[in-house]
């Protein structure tokens, strides 16, 4: 027993050691909690810094791409006009007409590339109105019906017709068009394109699933990066444009492989931007 200062009371050494052990244990727990929190915040800060650096690079890239796109388009317009005039002047000359046709095809590819660049670099806010998403998807599929049929791609739609999304109709249509064209690109010899929509966990989810070759593990991380493409042709901006459209509508887009084969792209829009269709 040890006497306490100022009185006759005393305390057992074992009680003192127990108090010390408890205090030490609490300090260790607090230290471990603080260490975990610091690690979490450090990791989160690193992710945010990478995102900020990526956005800064994309902003710089966007300025350059926008300037180049406008300059190229200014040059393409007279070339297209002169090519058309030359084709009319050549008349029935089959060989010359064939060559002119190849030139026109090349100009069309260039114009598509410029169009993708301009859509990617466009930094405008959505012009919102209530859009019936299911109707818009059907319109896109109807526009591409000849290509779907030519490639032997079956279309399966399972769409909710009850909700309308507060969104920019043109931007949304562009995203749906790009996803459908992406599916056609990976199914050149036929397959099934399944498009579904449903309200789930406070979001309107729209999924485009194909039966193509799927996405490799390395490509999943880069699939939405600008100018990244697994194809020998194209700009690599199609899915980057989809991501840009979804993000300006406060949504998210993800890509994953289907359980059997193919890939699925899921767009998620917050339910606050929806209303029930009449």
UniProtKB/TrEMBL annotation:
Residue ranges of every copy of the Histidine kinase domain listed in the record: 67-273
Keyword rRNA-binding: no
Listed transmembrane segments: none
GO function term, MF aspect, one: phosphorelay response regulator activity
Gene3D superfamilies cross-referenced by the UniProt entry: 1.10.287.130, Histidine kinase-like ATPase, C-terminal domain
EC class (word): transferase
Keywords noted in UniProt: ATP-binding, Coiled coil, Kinase, Nucleotide-binding, Phosphoprotein, Transferase, Two-component regulatory system
Biological processes per GO annotation: osmosensory signaling via phosphorelay pathway
InterPro entries the record matches: BphY/WalK/GraS-like, HATPase_C_sf, HATPase_dom, His_kinase_dom, HisK_dim/P_dom, HisK_dim/P_sf, Sig_transdc_His_kin-like_C
Reaction equation(s) it catalyzes: ATP + protein L-histidine = ADP + protein N-phospho-L-histidine
Coiled-coil residue windows: 24-58
Enzyme Commission number(s) of this protein: 2.7.13.3
Protein name (Swiss-Prot/TrEMBL): histidine kinase
Organism: Blastopirellula marina
Source organism phylogeny: Bacteria, Pseudomonadati, Planctomycetota, Planctomycetia, Pirellulales
């Amino acid at each position: 027993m040890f006497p306490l200062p100022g009185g006759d009371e005393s305390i057992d050494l074992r009680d003192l050691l127990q108090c010390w052990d408890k205090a030490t244990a609490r300090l260790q727990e607090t230290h471990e909690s603080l260490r975990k929190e610091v690690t979490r915040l450090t990791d989160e800060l690193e992710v945010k810094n990478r995102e900020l650096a990526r956005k800064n690079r994309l902003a710089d890239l966007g300025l350059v791409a926008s300037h180049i796109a406008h300059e190229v388009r200014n040059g393409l317009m007279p070339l297209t006009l002169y090519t058309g005039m030359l084709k009319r002047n050549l008349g029935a000359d089959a060989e010359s007409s064939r060559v002119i046709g190849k030139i026109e095809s090349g100009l069309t590819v260039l114009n598509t590339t410029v169009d993708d660049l301009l859509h990617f670099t466009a930094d405008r806010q959505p012009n919102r109105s209530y859009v019936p998403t299911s109707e818009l998807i059907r319109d896109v599929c109807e526009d591409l019906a000849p290509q779907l049929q030519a490639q032997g791609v079956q279309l399966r739609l399972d769409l909710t017709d009850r909700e309308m999304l507060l969104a920019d109709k043109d931007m949304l249509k562009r995203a749906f068009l790009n996803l459908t064209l992406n599916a056609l690109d990976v199914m050149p010899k036929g397959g099934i394109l399944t498009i579904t929509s449903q309200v789930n966990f406070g979001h309107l989810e729209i999924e485009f699933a194909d039966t193509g070759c799927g996405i490799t593990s390395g490509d999943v991380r880069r699939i939405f990066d600008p100018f990244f493409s697994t194809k020998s042709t194209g700009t690599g901006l199609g899915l980057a444009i989809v991501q840009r459209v979804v993000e300006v509508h406060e949504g998210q887009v993800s890509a994953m492989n289907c359980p059997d084969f193919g890939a699925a792209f899921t767009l998620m829009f917050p339910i606050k931007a929806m209303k029930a269709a009449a």
